[in-house]
Amino acid sequence: MWSKESLFIGGKWVAPATSRVIDVASPSTEEVVGRVPEASAADVDRAVLAARAAFDTGPWPRMTPAERADVLVRVADGLAARADELTQLITSSSGLPITVTQLAHVMMPQFYVRHYADLARTTPLEEYRAGLTGKLHIRQAPVGVVGAIIPWNIPLLATAAKLGAAWAAGCTAVLKPSPETPLDAFVLAEICEAAGMPPGVLNLVPGGAEAGTALVAHPGVDKITFTGSTTTGRAIAEACGRTLTGYALELGGNAAAIVLDDAPIGDVAAGLVQSALAANNGQACIAQSRVLVPRSRAAELTDALAAAAREIRVGDPFDPATMVGPLITSRHRERVSDMVAAGRAEGATVCAGGGVPAGLERGWYFEPTVLAGVDNGMRVAREEIFGPVVTVIEVRDEDEAVAIANDTEYGLSGSVWSADLERAAAVGRRIAAGQIWLNDSFTLDPACPFGGWKNSGNGREGGPECLHEYLQTQTTFRPAERPQS
Length: 485
Ligand code: NAD
Prior knowledge:
- The protein is of the alpha/beta class.
- The chain is built from 15 helices and 22 strands.
- The protein has helices at residues 41-56, 65-81, 83-94, 98-122, 155-169, 183-194, 209-217, 230-243, 265-278, 295-311, 330-345, 379-382, 398-406, 421-428, 463-469; strands spanning 2-3, 7-9, 12-14, 21-25, 32-37, 126-130, 135-142, 145-149, 172-176, 202-204, 223-227, 246-250, 256-259, 290-294, 349-352, 369-372, 389-395, 410-411, 413-417, 435-438, 453-454, 471-478.
- The strands form six sheets. It has a seven-stranded mixed β-sheet, sandwiched between helices. A five-stranded parallel β-sheet has the order 10-9-8-11-12, with helices on both faces. A three-stranded mixed β-sheet has the order 1-5-4, with no helix packed on it.
- Keywords: Oxidoreductase.
């Protein structure tokens, strides 16, 4: 079994304050595949103090952005060099199919870190501005100590998307991975150490809500960056409000895919199988869970989706042919199953799936499921499902589709499917969400300032917008130059 006994704090591998451990279970075998120390509030305190010292007196914020970029490139190289090990750890702890892990969870984090290294080299952080009263010198300074709280569904990806930018800006960090998937963070810490990152720039404190709460409440933290559920995000925002700590939140979603009347149904079904059912085992904040289709085409699309769902290969995440692996925990599978049952009780029809796949009783598997005849008022349409379940909602016309798409507390993403790209783009502009895809919905890009509207959050990850999450502005008023006497 893969195990670690120390926490990474202040550039050293140190003994944790308590003997508590996190046993990491494989969602496909239910066996323990890893064990790491669980950080207590005392460990979080030590980690924040180390990050504080590294920020207040250490070299990192005082290095040039280009020097920091050199370290980030070495971190990205380290991620590439240890890609197989990271793939193994993420697949075994998350149950995500190995092909998905390789691309989205191991390669994409490298792209993010390299992107921020490029931004560090090219983004001007100082300028002179001619003001009404004289010359202003404006500089962007790092915000300080960043506390990063990470979900289980994108462990290394969220970490790289957040900390790559925070580090590029000159911040130091305390990283709290989720207790379900803490293993890869230990490899990242070793990579940062080997890359010559100064002590205290990364500090690692795996744990659950207790460690997270301690991190958020710590007076030594300047900014919290969080990805996770809207419920937890709200609690974090409330806690940050009390201390006036800054926060960037990436929260839940409940996206609508608007299918226009001219869309080629076969292509739409093939695309939606990925973006609503298969991708990340359906546990994706950008899953297009509500498919809005004109009444005249609903039967055709439902049949195509149901047929495609039945073709999805569900099974062992280490099999390269697997498209959907297990859900993260038994408790989470229960929740997904309850939501499908609630949909059925409220009048929806299960056209494919709906239960545990035959022959996969060990592990927390759930069949790719298509629910038709769904009304947007049903629980299955109102709440984020976070599983391989798609709902089909019939609409009268484009206007009703837009109204239903926006009738949700969330605003993370949406998609429009049409034979006419300009028509699709025009409808996309009417969706109140941070990311819109046309005839697609799963492309990720480190240059995209990814983030939510409404209750899906307030932060941005990727692009220069993310660098600015970790910068704050300082203006120096310069007196007018006096002529030399
Ligand atoms: P979660 O909110 O349960 O947990 C997220 C993290 O917060 C974990 O590390 C957890 O230990 C920690 N935590 C829990 N309670 C806390 C507290 N009171 N204070 C501080 N930290 C606390 O979410 P999850 O189940 O791990 O992740 C799934 C959710 O994440 C979904 O809602 C999904 O949509 C969302 N998500 C959003 C994005 C995005 O970019 N918007 C990306 C991925 C996932």
